[in-house]
C-alpha cells in the first residue's frame, strides 16, 4: 500500500513483468531501501517481458488457479455477455488484487479480484476500414 499500486502490480514490478514509473520509483525506494539503485533504474528503463514460461503451469498454485478459470470459464463468459453485451474483458486496462478473508469455520480463504475494462466487439463495416 506504500507504493499506491495493487499488491499484484507490485509483485509484477519485482518480477520484471511491469514497468516502474518515475512517480512510483521514489515510493519503491522508500519501501525497499535495500534495492540497488541500478536495479531501480533498470525497472524504469527496461521494457517488461509480459509473456510467461509454459512451465509455470506445473507450479501447483498457478495450476489450481488456471483450473478454476477453465472450470468456471464458460459461466464467467455467459455472465459477462449477459451483463455487458458481446465483448471481452481487457487485460491491459485491468487491475488484479489478491487478498484473504475468513470463512464460516474460521479458515483462511483466498480472494482474487479481476477488474477489467469491458471492450465490446464491433461490426466491421467496410466504409469504416480506412
UniProtKB/TrEMBL annotation:
MF GO annotations: cyanate hydratase activity
InterPro entries, alphabetized:
Cyanase, Cyanate_lyase_C, Cyanate_lyase_C_sf
Matching entries from Pfam families are given as:
Cyanate_lyase (PF02560)
Classification via Gene3D superfamilies: Cyanate lyase, C-terminal domain
Q: Which residues form the Cyanate lyase C-terminal domain?
A: 51-124
Record's SUPFAM superfamilies?
Cyanase C-terminal domain
Task: Indicate what this protein is called per its UniProt record.
Answer: Cyanate lyase C-terminal domain-containing protein
Tell me which species this is from: Grammatophora oceanica
List the taxonomic lineage: Eukaryota, Sar, Stramenopiles, Ochrophyta, Bacillariophyta
Amino acid at each position: 500500500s506504500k507504493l499506491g499500486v495493487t499488491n499484484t502490480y507490485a509483485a509484477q514490478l519485482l518480477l520484471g513483468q511491469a514497468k516502474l514509473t518515475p512517480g512510483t520509483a521514489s515510493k519503491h525506494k522508500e519501501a525497499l531501501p535495500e534495492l540497488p539503485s541500478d536495479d531501480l533504474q533498470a525497472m524504469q528503463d527496461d521494457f517488461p517481458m509480459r509473456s510467461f514460461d509454459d512451465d509455470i503451469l506445473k507450479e501447483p498454485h498457478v495450476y489450481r488457479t488456471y483450473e478454476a478459470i477453465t472450470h468456471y470459464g464458460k459461466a464467467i463468459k455467459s455472465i459477462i455477455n449477459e451483463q455487458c453485451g458481446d465483448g471481452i474483458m481487457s487485460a491491459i486496462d485491468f487491475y488484479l488484487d489478491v487478498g484473504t478473508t475468513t470463512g464460516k469455520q474460521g479458515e483462511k480463504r483466498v480472494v482474487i479480484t479481476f477488474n477489467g475494462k469491458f471492450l465490446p466487439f464491433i461490426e466491421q463495416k467496410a466504409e469504416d476500414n480506412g
